[in-house]
Amino acid sequence: MNEEYDVIVLGTGLTECILSGIMSVNGKKVLHMDRNPYYGGESASITPLEDLYKRFKIPGAPPASMGRGRDWNVDLIPKFLMANGLMGLFEKRRFRKFLVYVANFDEKDSRTFEGVDPKKTPMREVYKKFDLGQDVIDFTGHALALYRTDDYLDEPCCETINRIKLYSESLARYGKSPYLYPLYGLGELPQGFARLSAIYGGTYMLNKPIGEIIVENGRVVGVKSEGEIARCKQLICDPSYVKDRVEKVGQVIRVICILSHPIKNTSDASSCQIIIPQNQVNRKSDIYVCMISSAHNVAAQGKYIAIVSTTVETKEPEKEIRPALELLEPIEQKFVSISDLLVPKDLGTESQIFISRAYDATTHFETTCDDIKDIYKRMTGSEFDFEEMKRKKNDIYGED
Hints:
The longest helix has 17 residues, at about 160-175. The protein is of the alpha/beta class.
């Protein structure tokens, strides 16, 4: 291990694994280590079910009614809408006109603007133009455009329209849902990017204790592990490896629920995502629910996993998520966790230590992708170009 690397990555959460893969594809010499013997870090998939009981200190073994323990792959932090009963007939007509407008919108073609200036007109005025009610505005902004607050309403409408357009195009492409979810759980994603890094020469070491991050003159120069030092020019890590360089900005409550039934009023869907907008429950933060099932090879036959999450706002977090838990009743077993929202204290420009943000309450990858792109820009000085990544891959493997 006494070698010099361009980049050392600590932690195998999704953010770290994606950045490891990107840096390897970019020709960097990468060493990737994790103190854990498994991939995923805080976003790991836990199997068998017995391990989930142990992790949350639930006494006893899972009941026989839950099937074989090895049939379960439970995501600790799931990332992946339900529109039932939101609109009456006339509201649907107005919303359809709005969606047609969004579908035809092209920020490079003023003929599609219909009197709206995408760089100046606030989104609030666009909703008013189509006479959309508050419930539909909440649904559109939080479930389609995936905003976490209502601040966007007074911002220029261009970004919001493009976000809704992305949702609509994704839905048209895949039919029943705009979202994708990997079989066997999200733990497959970090492993996939780890394999990508390995293909391009990256070195992986799991179950590797990290002794010390070595900094000289304010800049990272290496990592010490088991008496050996690996030198590097840049370091990527999750907050748990550098507790003195991060700060707490809040907390997230997550409740994993095992069910023997699909969620009510979802047409017996085998999976779904529900976003309860903040205004609907008199909160500052949305409440998220995602449900998956045996259809995704993550639960025993006939069983469902629903995970509720939100940003903590009071001293009684479990009461805050009661509106979501009521949607899930009856619940066979609950696993409750409250985790700190940790963010880096600085940008890493001087130390060249680039720290990912803790996973927030959202059940989609929007904020995770933003963090990845932000770290990449700080490390390289340039915006992440997905097309360039595809070109580099195709240079080696050809078109696919």
